[in-house]
Every structure is written in structure tokens, then in C-alpha cells.
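$ fold --in a.seq
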Amino acid sequence: MKNISILFFLFFLSLSAYAQNFTYGAITHDDYQFDRKTLDSNANAIVLKEFGNASIQLDDNTHSLVLVFEHHVKMKIYNKEGFKEANIVIPMYKDDSREETISDLKASTFNFIDNNFVETVMDRKAVFTENRSKYTRLTKFTLPNLKEGSVIEYSYTLKSPNLFNFKTWEFQGDIPKVHSEYLVYIPGIYNYNVSLRGFQKLTDQKVELSKECLRLSGAAIDCSKITYLMKNVPAFIEEDNMTAPSNFKSAIYFELSDVQNLNGGKTSYTKTWKDIDNDLSSEKNLGSQMKRKDLFKDLIPGITKGATNELEKAQAVFNYIKKQIKWDNYYGKYSTDNIKKALETRSGNVADINLSLIAALSAADLDAEAVILSTRDNGTVNKLYPVMSDFNYLVAKVNIGDKSYLLDATEPLLPFGLLPLRCINDQGRVINLKKPSYWIDLKASQKSVTNYILSGKMTTDGKIVGTLTTHSMGYSAFNKRRDILRYTSPDEYVEKLDERLTRIKITDHQISNLDSVENMLTEKYEVEFTINDGTNQNQFYFSPFFINPISKNPFNLNERTYPVDLGSGSDERITMNITLPAKYQLLEKPKDMAIGLPNNGGRYLLSSKLEEDTISVNQILQFNNAIYQPEEYLFLKEFYSRIIQNQKTEFLLKK
């Protein structure tokens, strides 16, 4: 990531023309015949040209400053798979008093018919809006008359009251781009911190001076005119095991640092953490709620009754809050109203619940702090200077002896000290009411652990009858408990599981510790399934890889420029012992394997044998790291490839 701090002064040069846009509707044969092989031979669509123009202007109606953003895109569609790129979604901010608006929207599809380009103009009735959340509204439309080979084009103007973040520009998207250009005009009285994220480099950046681009209270203000250009931009391909794409896509971000007032003063928007600490300590929906020990003072003796040490007290308080307040599925670092109301209604957002937890822990004379963080799908936070809008979540931290525990009481099925995976994202900022805030690593406190044990015997008619026992801990247990509790009862869960398992029939079951989240979850199933159809009892093939087989490599790129982030380490073990009904020879079997990742990053072990009429198979798949860097990607890819290749081999048994 590059970080550039730019201070814009007043300049006295001639006004530059605003638009460096390309002409709408001027489709050429070069556009229509553009060879995708020059950029990406597998692309289903390619952006031929993309231009953005952003400036701060005085709104004639409200007489307030607004951001005016113009966006113009021309795109080539190569096949039906590329038709989805013609579904355009424009997110817009809204709240009770301010909202972003769109005007001058036009969209057309161009097809080459009888040696002429024929334009199909989108009907305005095809545009509709959708309220996505309390603060987000979507404008959606689809380009008409799509064919393989169509060129589509659209443009619009967005007007926004949000000057703090100016307007982000994403050079990189899910399809390649030939030319992506962003032109910004920033008045000299505004100072923005500008950051270029992502792996791709700018092709060109040009800074010019533009005179009298804005007039406020009769005063003419000069601008900096900055052009950012990126050519031949590859598509950003999302794979599994990653945090927010915004962390890695090549894009320009703006954050307002300060504004020079016309009277000579300056308003600063970039604060120090000392300023933020003071603000949050007195913030009525954060710091003030952390202090509400009075709400729990009389309850604590009953909650912690029987606890013999601080850890047991903390666990008791944690379990109490999990039961008292149900999460309403909203994130937040601030309480919606206050924790008293959340306790009364027994419902609240993330901050309502975890601020209640902090206050209750404090009432129990435990050392509790708040941690503000950004969830995995929200992106990483800026470490160079505080940007409160980067944070969207709050959890609790309790310090006991020389150990600290991070707690989130929104998920009743998670054990004490294990955060939801959504929170495992780089670092959070610890807010303490009595001392300066500080950074803390957000790491999973447990591995995801699963052990499968199959003990059975093969019958003379080619069936295996036996017991499959599964032990789960960490995130594995959490996910399994959540799956089971989606049903009205464990019996219904098993019934649906039996329907999904086409080869395996479940005849009986027992699930232990379903509600005891601090303990290992154990599932015990009596199963039967056929491995030999009976056509040849003397010789048959049998694959031992029917428990959680690896059939598809999750890593398929030639190169990955962003980390593989699993969230936590994992350990999966499979043990099988199957007794045969008669003497058999083992003519073929999968090769025993012992392969590892560099730097003790993980390993895969496989061993199998036939001994005294019993087939034994042992597998171990371990990932010791939560995060693997881009340079380790090809090792992971090869690691999986070798496992998959070996699992294609079967046992060949001969009587």
C-alpha cells in the first residue's frame, strides 16, 4: 500500500477545462473488434474505457458544498457469461437528513448489424432503486438487447453531501480494464490524505493547477487538478480464504485531513489517538455505557455465585449476558440507544451486547476494556492515523492475571475467549477509560479441530456396517452446532442429513454436548453403506476417501497477489478400521504420503494397510498458520494437487 499526504495550496494559474471525458456513443470498429487476447484471453467482458471526474461544488438549491462525481464506462461483451456485467448496481449513501442522488443517467447497447452500429437506448423504466440497509440505497439497471459481441455504454452523475471521503475510485474490478482514468479537482482549502491500495501500479499521475474552480462567500478559490491513470489492468479474481476485496483491489482512497477556513482558521479532521480516546471516553453511546456498573451491581452476587476465581467469575458473567440479550444482527461500535434499554428489551446490536458485558465484568471487579475493530468483510483499518469510520464492531477484553481474553457475547454457541471468525481481521484498538488506547492482534485462540473415527465391518453382501464418531472443537464445533440448531431438533437434523448422504444410511444417532459449548461436540452415528455391488465377491475396488474427501483444489490461480487467510489453523484427522468377512489380498492401494508446507506451515499424512483381515486408514491434514503470504500460494496449490491426485487411487481387494 502506498500512502501519500497531499497539501493543496492556492494557485494562480489559468483555469483548466474540467472534462477530459470520451464522447458518448462514439463506437468504433476498434471497440467492436478489440482482441481480448491482448489483455486476458479468458475474459468474458472487458472495460474498454472508464472515466471518472470528481469535484467539490456549491449546490444551487441548498447553497451547501457537495461532491459531484461523473462516471462514464464503455465495455465489450464477448459471450453470454459476460452478460452479467451489464447488470449495473450503484450504491448510494442515505440517512434521515442527507442522501446521495443520481442524475443524467443514460445507458445504451450497440450491436453491429448490416455494417452499421445500431444503438438500443435503455428505457428509463428499467431503472429501479432498492433500500439495502439503513444507510445504503442501490440504483440498479440492466443494459438492453444484449448479444455476444455487444458494446455497452453508460454514464451518470452522482451528487453527494459526503466530503470527508471524497470519492473512492476502483481501478481494478472483476473484469480487465484497458483504460481507467480518474480526474479530481480539490479546492486549495481542502487537505486530503490520499492512499493508493493494491498490487497494480499507476501508469501515470499528473498534477496541474486550476484557477478559480470554486467561489465561496465571494472569494475565488483555486484547485489542484490531479489525474490518475492505470492501463491494462488485470481482473481482480476473488478466491476463498480472503478478507475484504477492498484490502487488495487497486484503488484510490481519500480521507479529509483539514479545511482552511476563509477567515484564516483551520478545522482539523485527522485527530490523534489521544483526541480519539478523550472523545470515546465521554461518548454517550460508548464510554458512558462502559461505566454503567450500577446496572449490574445488585445482580453480580447471584451471577457469580459458586465461582472460585476470576476466570470462573468472568465466564459466569459472559454466559449471563449471552442469555440476557439477543443479537439483532446489526454491527456497530456504538450502542443504539443505551445498554439499559437493551437489557430491558433483551435485544440489541453488537455494541449494546458487548458494552453490557464490559459494564457487567467491571461490576464484578474484573479488569475489562473495549476493543473496536473492523470485520473481515469491512476491510483493514488505517494505522497511520485514526479514521473512526474504518471501525464497525466492538468486542470486550478481560484481563485475568497475565492472560487476556477477547469476548463477543453475540454468539451463544461460541466458547469463552473465542471470537467469531468475522472479527479475526488484523488488529483492533483497545479502549481503556483510564489509560491510552493501543493496538492488539486479532487472532483465533483455538484451532478448528475435527476427528473422524469409523469402526466397522464388511458383510458378505458388500456392505459396511459400523459406527462413525465425530469430535469437533473450535470453529468446527461452532459451525456444526449452528447447523444442528437450525432444525427443530437433533432428530430432524439427522433425518435431513440422512437424506443428503446418498451413499450412507444412518440407522441410529447420539449427539453429546450440543449445548455445552465449552466442551467437545461429539456425534455418534450408526451407519451402513455399500462398497461392493455384489457382482464380483472375489475382487473389487473400494475407495477409502469417502469422509470429507478433497475433490477440488481451492487454489487455481497462476499467481495470487493477496494472502490466503484461513482465519485460524486447523487439524483434521480421519481414522478407519474395517474388518473384512474373509481372507483378502490387497493388490493396489493409495500411496502412503507424508508431505509438508515450508516453514512448518502444515502437513498431510496418509497411511493404510491390510492386517489380519482389517483395513486400517489414517489421515492427518493440518494447517498450522492462519495466514499464508502470496509467495506461499504456489506451495499450497501444489500441496492440494498432490493430495487430490493420490485420493483418486482406490483399494483393490482380492479374496
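$ fold --in b.seq
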Amino acid sequence: MPVKMTIFRRLILMLVLLILPILGLYMYSNQVSVRVVRNEIKESNLQHLSFLLRQAEVTVEQLMLAANTIGRFQVIDDLIHIDEKPSNYEKVVIKQDIIEKLRLSGASSNWTNQFTVYAPAAGTGVTTLNSADYGAMFAEDAITKEWKYRETSENGVPVKQFVRHTVYPGSRIIVEVSFTADNIRNMLDQIKLKGKNDPFFYHPGELPIMNRTANETLAEGVVDYLNGRKVDADRAESGTEYVRLQGRQYMINYVKSETLNWVLVDYVPMEYRLSPIKNSSLLFYACIGMLLAMSIAFALLLYRNVQMPVSQLLHGVRNMERGQFSVRLTNRQKNEFSYLFHRFNQMASQIEQLIENVFAERLRSKEATLKQLQSQINPHFLYNSLAFIKSMTELEEKEAVIAMTLNLSQYYRYTTRVENQEATLGEELELVRNYLTIQNLQMQRFDFELDVPDDMLELRIPRLILQPIAENAILHGLEPRMEWGWLRISGERDGSGNRLIVEDNGVGLSEDALEKLRIKLDTPLDNESGCGLWNVHQRLKYRFGPEAGVEMSPSPGGGLRTVLHWTDHENKGGPS
């Protein structure tokens, strides 16, 4: 009897077939990993050194910039012509002013620095140093336009410092800026505090500038190696060397400072960095390789046997959510999903049949409801109209009789047509015009105005939707008012939808009465609720959705303002 290959058994078989190749790949993976880590360490150290060196160069460039701007001070011209000053007090004031400006220039840097300004023509200068021998400091062979490392003395104590001169045109003045090697040493101390580095500054022929806790033995070995390799600071850019010192292999990284013409050097033991990787690489990379391969296998297997069927099932469910109940699923593989697909197809078929039945029933119910609502509109003013015709006939007012008869016939011709449940807004307005003309003939104490844009006249709306609003305005607003009245019907259309506004200057309603009427519009019709506004409100909701309806508020003219509103997208695709 053949064994049935279920999804689980296929997964087990795939794992067994993948284990054997993994055992042959771990050696190669280990070698590649060590090489990659070595390169990463080198690149990381070089980038770190470049970043730190750039910070130092920025500080040095600030000092150079300050030296280049000192000669532009107005008081420098006073120093050049200081011999022309009549009193020693003025000379002292000039020098003191220059000293203050030199200190302000040096304050822009976080390094300890000194500035000296020398005017050769006057044979004098100003300095922030404690003392200065201008003749020796600005001798021709002592002037350097590049940074120079030299040893000098302050108060009898030898001091190593970097110095640079800025000579202004015509040797008008010479500015010397300097900073001690302790600034470099402080920077190296900060670098070492942040890691296990042991950096130092190197230049052939000079003693290296080391951090204060440096391993001098190892550092000297690195310097001897660099001297033997003839790493020239004039030509070096950046690089990496490997050297064995005291029985251990070290990686030496160096980056040249273009500004100072020195090289920042750092060395790290490779054993310290690579030994944990070597010790764990076999197990780590073997596991990673196995997990990776297993993941790929699982992904492929699950995609074909699980993901694809699940995707089909989800696609079918989404189609059903969108109302496409005719969707059916197929599965050629004989597995657990075959049963699910079969049951899904049965369920979809049953739901489709049920939806069709319910939808047909709802259509019939909705049509019956709309006809019932339309039939509730009772032209109760017929008797008054006939009485008016009788009275006018007795008075031999032929024109009034003709006008009443014409408008009344057009009015009832429209209202008695029940074959179509919708009409254009233009047709509805014509009906309202007939109705208002009839009422005006009877009352003869109000004016009316219809102001609806032409682009709204072709909109399709439920029939007899506007006349009940005008009827309420006449009967409950203008008729109780004994003074002359007016009624205006206007239309608006914008991005938010369409609005028909009916407003008058009748007696209106109080705020409490308005609130009660608003509540009744959304409650089921009962014996106490009125039919006119209620059925208009409900028919708008039936036709255009729950956002459509009737809103009421006080009119600026003192009467009532009624707004019928619906949106354009709800007006599209409806029944005609």
C-alpha cells in the first residue's frame, strides 16, 4: 500500500536531504567569514581614525582662519605706525586692544593656543605668550607658512608645539599661531577612553606624540616597523599594515593629516578581535546555514502547499465581501485544502442563492414602500381650487378661471402619473410653480421666486419630493401670517453635493418645536407624526442613502428654512 505523502512528511524528507550538503559547506563558510570580518575591522578602524583626524583638522583650520583674519583688524594699522604715536599711553592702549582681539580669536577653538602679531617695519609686536623674543621668533629662517613642529621654552620649561606663520603682503605684518602637543595628547587620551585603541601621532625623524597611558614598548615597535617600511608622511594617505610583535599579530592603521603633515596611527591585536569569531564560527555559521536552507525549503514548500491555497481562499473570501458570490475555487492537489475548497464552493453557492432571493424580495418591498409613500401625498387643496373656480365663474372672472383650470390640470396630470418613480428636478420645479400659482390665486397675499441653476435641472430625484415642502410653507407659515409674505426656492451645487433650499417669512417655529420635528423625521411613522416632511425625508434616504435627507432651521426672514440635500455620487446609477 503506497504511503500517502502529506505536507508534514514532505517537510521531513526535505530536511533530511538538506542536512548532508550543509556539513560540506561549513569549512568554506568559516574561511570567508574570517576574511570578511578582517576587512570590516580594517575599514571600521580607518573610518574611525579619519573621523577623529578630521575633527582635529577642523580645529586647526579654525586657528588658521583666525590668523588670516587678524590682519584685517583696524587696530593692526595702528601697530604698524605705533612709532608715530606721541605718548607711551597710546602705545600701551593699542597693544592692549590687540591682545584682547587675539584672545577673542583664540577663544573660538577648544584647544589651548597662542597668537603673536609682529610688525617688521615698527620692530615690535603683540603676543598672548608670557614673553616673546620677536627677533628670534620672526627671523627669516624661523618663518614657516606650513605647520611646523618645534621645541621652544616657556618660563624655562621646554615645550613641544606646532607653529605656523601668516605673512601679509609686503611683510606689513606677520601673524604666528601655535598650539602645544598637549592638545594632540589630550585628543589621543579621549580616543583611548572610548575603546581599546592605543593611538599616536607619527612623523619620520620626530618623536611620536603618544597618549598618556600608551604601551610605549609596543608603540616603539610599531614606530620601528613604520620607519623600516619608510612610511613617508609627505606621501602617505591612509593604509593598513600587518606586523607581528611580541608573538602576536597586530593590524596597524594610519591616516595622514593633510593640514599638519603628520600621520595618526593606531594598532589593534588581531587575535583579540578574531579569536571569538574563530572559536564560534563553526557552530554559528553552520547553524545559520542550516537555518537559512531550512527556511528556504520551508518557505518553498509552504508557499506551494499552504500559501497558494490560502491565497486562493482569501481571494475567494474577498470577492464574496465585494458581492461576487459566483466565485468558485479549484484545487488539483489532493490534500486537506481540497475539502476546504469543496465546502467553500458549497457555501458560496448557497449564499448566492440566498442573496438573490433576499435581494429580489427587498426590491419588491422597496418599490411597494415608495408607492405607499407617494400615495400618502393627498392633494387636499382640490376642494378649495374647485370652490375658487365656482366663485370666479359666478363673478365672470374668466382669466382667473382659465389660470386656475390650466395650473390645476397640469398639477394633477403630473401627480397622477405613477408609472415612473423619478423625475428631473426641472419637472418637479414646474409642478411646484403650478402649485404656488394655484395658492397665489386663492390667497393673493404672497410672492414666490424659483432660483435653481440650469446645471441642476437634469438631476433625477424622487417624484413629488419638493411640493410637500412648499405646501407646508404655505399652510403653516404664510397662511397664518396676515401680512404680505414671500417664499423662495433656490438650488446650490458644489463638491459636497446638491441642496434645494425652501425658505419663507412666515410665522416659523420655536426652537423646541423645531427640535421635536427633527426627532420625528427619523422615527417610524405613527398616528401622531405628520406625513409631508416625514415621507420626503424617508424617500431621500431610500433613494440616496443615509447621509441624504431634510434639515430645518430658522429663516433669516423670520420664517422657516428647509434644506433637501444629497450627494452627487449617490445620484449616479440609481433607478430611473
